[in-house]
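Q: Hi! First time doing this. I have a protein sequence and I read that you can turn it into a structure. Is that right? Here it is:
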Amino acid sequence: MVYCRCPVCGNGFHLNPGIPIDDWYRKFAPGLKPNDEPEIACRDCWTKLDVGDRVRIRLKTARIDGGFHERDEGIVAALEAEAESWFVVDFDNPVRRAKFLRDELSIVKRATCSHPSLEV
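A: Yes, that's right. Below is the predicted 3D structure, encoded as structure tokens:
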């Protein structure tokens, strides 16, 4: 088991590489020794976000206006690609909408598939 740290959110997690630990370190973390803590983005930070996904404000930066708090949850309503990718998130209680960068959000739950071919 490899103990890793996410460079985005700082959370620690275990990774079961499925190959011998020494081989994993040589292949994926050259320069580190076994038992060193490699920096690898965790599931909450690397997962691609899509419209309909439930997300949480992971980090409230100075750019984010008042009224929002870390751990507030909302639904991704739209994706906007400019120089950077923006995620438009709808919140309720109170109802409001705001744009966030990916590193300001973590995923809570993937949207349910609603592809027409799967409907009964």
